[in-house]
Amino acid sequence: MSTSTYTVVGMTCSHCAMSVTEEITAIPGVENVDVDLASGQVTVSSGSDLDRSQVQEAVEEAGYQLAAS
Predict the structure, then answer these.
(1) Where is the HMA domain (predicted)?
(2) Nearest-5° angle of CA 8, CA 10, CA 14?
(3) Alpha-carbon distance 31 to 48, whole Å?
(4) Exposed/middle/buried for 54, CB within 10 Å: 0-12, 13-18, 19+?
(5) Which domain holds residue 12?
(6) CA atoms of 16 and 3, how far apart (whole Å)
(7) Which phi and psi angles does 44 have, rounded to 5°?
(8) pLDDT computed for residue 69 by the predictor
(9) CA 38, CA 64: separation in Å to the nearest integer?
């Protein structure tokens, strides 16, 4: 299993976190998404390595941005 952590900019409430979680969970291979709203950190666990662009696209679909890495 692969685990990656990203910082999402603009999440301010539980609804924000839920939207981001739903979009990232829809990526094939994603097994778990854990959002820490206070820090903006999103930890994604998947059965294989995810491409950052897949996560970025999902986060943008939810209406937010990934912080530059």
Answers:
(1) 2-67
(2) 90
(3) 10
(4) middle
(5) 2-66
(6) 21
(7) -115, 125
(8) 66
(9) 15
Contact status, residue 16 vs residue 25, Cβ threshold 8 Å: no
| CATH number where 48 lies | 3.30.70.100
Rounded Cα distance between 9 and 1, Å, is: 26
Calpha distance 51→56 (Å, rounded): 9
Residues for the chain: how many in total? 69
CB 21 within 8 A of CB 30: no
Q: What is the pLDDT of residues 12-62, one digit of tens each?
A: 999 999 999 999 999 999 999 999 999 999 999 999 888 999 999 999 999
Tokens matching residue 49: 């390595």
For the chain, how many structural domains are there in total?
1
